[in-house]
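Data availability (excerpt). The following record was deposited with the supplementary files.
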Amino acid sequence: MVISTPGIVMHATKYGDTSLIVKIFTQQQGNQSFIVKSAYRKNSRFAASYFSPLAVMDISYDDHNKGSLKYLKDITPRTTAAQMYYDPAKSSILLFYNEILYKLLMDSGQDEVLFDFLQEEIAKVHASSGNMAELPLRFLLRLSRVMGYEPEDNFSDSTPYFSLEECRFQPFYMEDAGFLSRQQSEYLHLLLTCNEPVPVSRGVRNALLKGLVAYFQMHNEQIRKIDSLEILSTVLH
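Predicted structure:
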């Protein structure tokens, strides 16, 4: 049976001298793995540049053999992350998104709600202009909602500290025990309640970004170190 579906490239690994093994998160069947032969050869029908991380494309493939790598029959690129190479902020954001999503969705099955959400979030990066420093924070919060563990916004003067483990604000603070500082917690509260940009120092913003990555790590054992976090914190101002 031939499947035609939109897909988002999650990972591509060179195979041999000229081929690729590509993992694509598809709208209809979740994660699927493909072998793309001759991707590095001149005038290849499916060039390696099409399969940059988080590239969005329409694909078709034969699904008759469910136990092995599949072969693409056709692709039509919608976007390619390679378009972002000359924009350090956008390329760093997409690199960060991709690392989080690749680890989070390692064995993900069909999930059209999640697919549509990711497609929208990738489009936001492509369309963004100006200061994009808040974009990764808001992405992680929206992703946490889709995944089912959005922070509870019970922030108040009596509950000013966010607990990463409990997913809610608490009246006490325990250093090195999965709590955000008062400043970080208040910033988190403002992001949860306000759609407008929130003016904070770069230090507070980067600290909250690290805190939210730790939040995902705490609730998803497959997410460990995120190597792109340091790059993102350096690039975004």
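Summary of structural features: The first helix runs from residue 88 to 104.
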